[in-house]
Design a protein that fits this description.
Blueprint lengths: L2 H24 L6 H5 L2 H7 L10 H5 L5 H15 L5 H29 L6 H10 L3 H4 L5 H16 L9 H14 L4 H13 L5 H26 L5 H11 L13 H9 L2 H17 L4 H15 L15 H16 L8 H24 L6 H11 L5 E6 L20 E6 L15 E7 H4 L3 H9 L3 E5 L3 H10 L8 E5 L10
Parallel strand pairs: 1-2, 1-3
Antiparallel strand pairs: 3-5, 4-5
Helix pairs in contact: 1-6, 1-7, 1-18, 3-5, 6-7, 6-9, 9-10, 10-12, 11-16, 14-15, 15-17
């Protein structure tokens, strides 16, 4: 790598480190409930910090892998031992741990790609592999999807090596096994991975045996961890398969049509970018039919297309493979049309590229400051850090509760100084909800006030004024321009006063 390129490489790495750690620091809470209730609350219960009776139904069914809750409880135990007991600080430690894993995994993947001459434009590939706008946000999450996807990068990198003798089959099996233990759906990626090795790579039986042996070893370790965690012999992988697939319990949480992920992609990324991403995937599968990524991704995607219960987060394990996929496809198109020789087009292409990089960094920065999970935990963190020494009376609408979303109490972040009251509509705000001698707050979503003149009138009557919002101004602006982010879910924290009865008509 040339000297100038090395300098740019280091600058990109430094920028990425900064953005990742800022994102991890700001991203209090969880993107989805399972990121918290199936991991953090499991860990707290095992440590005796919260009752097992309040855990989700999955605990009693023994269908969640417990390797990740075990990591969490280890972090919590060490933090408690050194006197670092703040629950939000402990959550930040878990995200920092994820950042470390992300950089180890992604940089190793990048190094392997470079050493084997797979990508020509190295600097841009490094930038996209680390700073594609959604990656810092997703790669700091202490979630099963993120950890499984990051761990899967090692086996992919190993099989991209041109020198077959340099691969380590035992480590491939270890990382395939770990990825599986964190997220069982990765099993469909493993199926495609092994099928490619057999049918395309023509891998020797001895190598496959070593991979299988080490995978089995990791799986058995997972069984031991599950059995210790659940206090009885447990094979959570079987329980997960039986309950969710054979018994189809997952469908009780919602059923979507087969094209859900296609439509949702245009919603998450905006129509134009969403269609572009879908087109990229389709083109890659057609043009690189024998490529490892094709064989890994197609089984994973097809199964998720046809499983009735769908959530967009289920696709997160594959996000770190997208930059390589895109670059391979783009470079193939460039070689076909020899754009590099069209000197008149180069300025236009560089202009478009510069604009894309700039917009990408804006989104990455916006996401680094965005409140994860529409800001529920961000609100409870704000109250915790600002008003911990005062009695707080918190009134909220049903879906705006920072302590009890979806009807489940978040024990890990609950504060004893906070009295939480739920109302159906902000129009129901009245003097009876006001408590003398306490700080009186109200939390609403933007959507709670839409087409709700009575709710708006109640805020005026009670002299409510805004203290904090979950979406920052940059996120709001980008959301309005590009049609992304669920801005109607923006959480707003108000103070409110007792209404003067003499002014009531």
């Amino acid at each position: 790598m040339a000297k100038n390129n090395k300098t740019l490489y280091r600058l990109v790495i430094v920028l990425a480190v900064l953005i990742y750690f800022v994102t991890a620091w700001n991203s209090h809470g969880f993107y989805h409930a399972d990121e918290h209730f199936q991991i953090v609350e499991f860990a707290d219960a095992k440590l005796g910090k919260s009752p097992v009776s309040e855990l989700p139904w999955e605990y009693a069914a023994g269908l969640r892998p417990t390797i990740q809750p075990t990591i969490a409880l280890s972090v919590f135990k060490i933090a408690d031992w050194v006197g670092f007991s703040d629950p939000y600080g402990q959550g930040t430690l878990l995200r920092f741990l994820t950042v470390i894993l992300a950089f180890i995994s992604i940089l190793y993947f990048i190094k392997t790609v470079f050493q084997n001459g797979i990508i020509r434009n190295q600097i841009l590939f490094v930038f996209c592999s680390l700073l594609l706008f959604c990656l810092p946000f997703l790669n700091v999450r202490f979630s099963s999807e993120t950890w499984a996807g990051l761990l899967f990068l090692y086996p992919i990198a190993q099989m991209l090596r041109k020198d077959s003798e340099s691969i380590n089959p035992f480590l491939i099996g270890v990382f395939l096994g770990l990825s599986f233990l964190f997220r069982y759906q990765v099993g469909f990626m493993i199926f495609g991975f092994i099928l490619w090795m057999v049918s395309i790579k023509k891998t020797e039986l001895a190598i496959l045996f070593k991979i299988g042996l080490s995978f089995l070893g990791i799986f058995l370790i997972g069984v031991l961890i599950d059995s210790w965690f659940y206090n009885e012999f447990t094979i959570s992988a079987w329980n997960y398969f039986k309950v969710n697939l054979l018994d189809d319990v997952a469908s009780t949480f919602g059923v979507e049509p087969w094209h859900y992920y296609l439509v949702e992609t245009t919603k998450v990324f905006g129509t134009l970018l969403g269609i572009f991403l879908i087109a990229i995937l389709g083109s890659f599968f057609l043009l690189f039919r024998k490529h490892l990524l094709t064989w890994v991704l197609i089984p994973f995607l097809l199964i998720h297309f046809f499983i009735p219960h769908k959530e967009y987060r289920f696709l997160f394990p594959i996000v770190n493979l997208i930059p390589l996929l895109v670059f391979l496809l783009v470079e193939k198109y460039i070689s076909w049309y020899k754009i590099k020789n069209f000197h008149g087009i180069k300025p236009v292409l560089y202009g478009i590229l510069s604009l894309a990089v700039g917009i990408n960094l804006l989104f990455a920065f916006a996401l680094s400051n965005e409140s994860v999970g529409i800001g529920r935990t961000e609100m409870s963190f704000f109250i915790h850090s600002t008003y911990s020494n005062q009695s707080v009376n918190l009134v909220n609408t049903k879906w705006a509760s920072p302590y009890k979303p979806w009807g489940a109490l978040i024990n890990h972040y609950s504060d004893t100084n906070v009295n939480n009251i739920e109302i159906e509509n902000p129009a129901l705000l009245n003097n009876e909800l006001y408590q003398d001698g306490k700080l009186n707050f109200l939390i609403l979503r933007d959507i709670d006030l839409q087409n709700n003149p009575d709710g708006k009138a109640a805020l005026i009557n009670h002299q409510a004024h805004i203290i904090k919002e979950s979406f920052n101004p940059l996120t709001k602006t980008l959301g309005q321009i590009f049609g992304v982010f669920e801005l109607q879910e923006n959480l707003i924290l108000y103070t409110f006063e007792k209404q003067d009865s003499t002014k009531i008509r």
